[in-house]
User: Fold these one by one.
Assistant:
Number 1:
Amino acid sequence: MAIISICRGTKSGGNALADCMSQKTGYPTLGLEVIEQAAAQLGVAPEDLDEKLEDRPGLFDRSASLRKLYLAAIRAELARQVVEAEGDIIYHGLAGGLLLKAVPGVFCIRLIAPLDLRVQALRETERMDPDEAEAYIQEVDEARAQWVKTMYGEDILDPTLYDMIVNLETFSVSETCQIVLAGVRQPEFKITPERLERIQDFRIASDVRLALLDDMGTQTLDLDAQSRDRVVTVTGEAPMYSRTGDVGQRITEIASSVSGVKDVVLDLEWFDPYP
Amino acid sequence: MGTLLPPGSDPVQVPPGTVAVGQSRKDEAVAVITISRGSLSGGKALAECLSRKLGYPTLGREVLQEAAESLGASEESFRGKFETTPGLWARLTQERETYILAVQTALAEWCTRGDLIYHGLAGQFLLQGLSGVLRIRLVAPREKRIEALLESMHRMSPEKAEAFIENVDRERARWVRVMYGVDVNDPHLYDLTVNLRTMSLDTACAAVVEAVEQPRFRMSEEAEAECFSFAAECRARLNRITGG
């Protein structure tokens, strides 16, 4: 069928919708546990990873490179799980629409709910008083919007980022489930063998990016990786003295070590570090 | 805005079926669907697809013609005044208020006749607060909209097509901001927003059908009474203003 990605504000019913869709489709759900699994891969505590990710990036952002690494780890873990599920998965964790932007067959839903409903939900689960709950929701919403702006240059409220936006002021979670399924089950979201190959390419590119950010020799370079038919192209900038030296070779070694890679192409802008 | 009559204000109590504005509602589930969208985003095509699947009639800008006739104005001048964003002074004049009320009345009276798909301007505002109304927002990528425009206007260059669409979007957004004080792109104004970036029109249609078939959009007796009352209220107010 399709990869279903659910984006929502805090206390907007995302978990409940994921559970409902899972019951109707039999697909596994994946949420915040992707952070735990990514943290385990990097050997850091999930709380540290979560904290760095949720940090509002500032002007002098000392955590920028660490955040980039953590985000790459989450993307790689998400890609791995999508491949494992052969594209039949419901993701309701961090930034699904943005992390899966390059992947075909993703149905991206945003849930919106009026503030009073969300305040009510928070009062019931966390026993907050109304003012405290409202302030909390506004703070989390603002931080998330700022985070998306800084990391992806996108406005989280932009309706063009989502395939469907459902207003929970009108529809219940189970009604939303029915409406979303009516869309997801259509041919344009079907995971075909060709799309599975693209998903595999996404997994490979995500793993290469993570490996480059996790290596002492390459992590300070501004590199990106794409994969097509399992041939990886690494782009970005590298200092000129390394053109024939070991940096280019190191990049190739790292990319080649990722499982499934057939070949590596370097498409780098070389610059003179001592002009 | 003073022109927008919220249902229930200044009510004229009229029991269902007593207002001679058209045929009475059928017994089965009925609903009104409003489709808001940018120019060339496929709104009319979605309305037609929904009409085929649900059997509801569609209504677009024709409502302006009815409203113009009810005021004895020409459709062209009516349209110009209704659709363009007013300046500061014009905002305060009663003429514009009358025009909007005439459109609201014509649309509300259409709703009393039963199922309806409205894909004209400002449906979500003109019928704001009425039960049994499903408010859809249709979003389409700019490239697809440019392509649609170029197909219908062979002599237009892509640059001009893009500029045209930008201009229409800007004007429409300004109109909504000035008249209703909100951002037309805010998804909270709608029950469901569908995006044609990947989704085909048929898929969007299937999702909207699923949405309107949810029990909450089956018009209850109370919702039906509310609808008739609203139409009568609009008509009475329009008559008071125009002396009709």
Number 2:
Amino acid sequence: MLSRLAANTRTSRINLGADGFTVSAGVLVATIGRPWAATALTTGLALLIWLFGSRVLRHYDARRAQQGLAGDLALTTLLVIASAVAVGAVAFVAPSPNVLRYVLVVWPATLWIRFMLPGARAVAEAEHDDVLVVGSGTLGRHTGISIAESARTLAGYLSLPADAPCDRLPASLLGQSADLERVLCERHVSEVYLAGTSNADGEAMQSAIRVCERFGVPFALPATPYRLDRARPADKSALADGYIHFLSYERHPMQMRVKRLFDIVASGFALAALAPLLLAVAALIKITSKGPVLFKQERVGQHGRPFFMLKFRSMVVNAEALKAKLAASNEQSGPVFKMKRDPRVTRIGRFIRKFSIDELPQLVNVLRGEMSVVGPRPPVPTEVARYEAWQRRRLSVRPGLTCVWQVSGRSEISFERWMYLDMQYIDHWSLKEDFKLILKTVPVVLTGRGAS
Amino acid sequence: MSTHTKKRVLLVEDDPRIVDSLVEALRQIDCDVSVVVRFEDVLESVVERPPHLAIVSLNLPRNSGYDICELIRGDDSLLSVQILIMSDQASPAAIAYAEDAGANAFLRKPFTRQQLQKYATALLDPHRPPRPSMRWLRRSESPPPVV
């Protein structure tokens, strides 16, 4: 795990270095025949934007969220566009560089580097792929060995009642199958292998399946409980590892890819279009109250993986500390804290909250792959700790900026009802539904209805 | 143990494309190799001249390699015979069945001559305990360790 991270960090540095070189070369080509001072200025500006942009997007971060092919393509393109705008902007102060030539050099080259760099993408995508094996018998052990040999990480074992004690497992024993619920709460598990048979462990297997379904965690069952001497699956790709894999939601791979692509394009455009507003708000926040412009809050993302959600700061600096004192005036049922006239909110804060402007920095979270435009709102860790098991299924998808709850009255809805709405969204997800929700969100935001 | 300097290896394989090269590879590491194809002949051969190591293909014309494992393990006097299963079906379930049937190691086909020699050498090590304990059955860089 650690060595893979280190290798990934090195690959990232090579990636960054190569991209920096490409950008410089692109500027050189774009400024042929211009004075050297203009070339130097353009190079500096393009590199600055590239560095800043890639830092914001976590483009070279070894621990970034999974992006996939479409995501990597779109993010690299976005960086090329941003730096090309910077190159073009030089025209205001110096002889204008040839932006087209810059793009023609940098775009294909950076994409080529991104996709050809050995291991860069593969490692980043496998990073959080932790697998849990239930069953510590012979089958469980060999399942674990085969997982450990692949790009996935073995999180540990839970033993089934019929398993003989085994001390030769390739990962540590975390408890019994009855502890599955606890382990899923404590760790980020992206798949559970149920290595048992219905003869020996029928009941324990069934209850483990039930837990996986309630949590929305993907799981795998042995393809057959029988000994096969020479028979082999007719369709090999379906069960390459001898397991049948299950998901607790309908999978639309093509629609999912379109959704991710839409997320990147839409939030990229939105950030560019709203840049003047964002800068003005940032300036106002800085001027009117003490403290940073952005408020970074730890939220729980897909599969329970924590990330920092960005907001414009709308409260006084020590707001979290004041929250404990105000707990008695909580107006929202369940583990969420909501209050209509919260005294911690600043004057500018009240305005940007009314029109949800405080949420706009999350467009950056979307670009980073930690969030999506549409999806259940990411909860804070203390909320998740108090979730009932079935409510944790909210974490089986990428969280979003807006969801059903946001367009149906928000704070006026009970926590229980909110959870039901989110679950309904996950179970009946389609791309069409997402676009409908986006359209419904627009009037809600513009009128400031239901916002706290 | 045996007074012979050469280790006896019983090869149960019917694939004509690989039998010869397997025998050749085993002779290179100084083994006395005998080849049996018919299931019915295996027990006879094993009882008559107990081998140190039985290398068994999983996919045989009539029965399977699992059956041969069970056949050998069913006889208490043959407990010291090491069994290596070879198969192109190397799912965790297949390997687990091999272990449960009494095999000591599992080699995924296709394998190289060096891999076979490495596995055979490790299994023929006289310091190995008599009954199975296969830890690393899969095709890996290191030979199966002695537990």
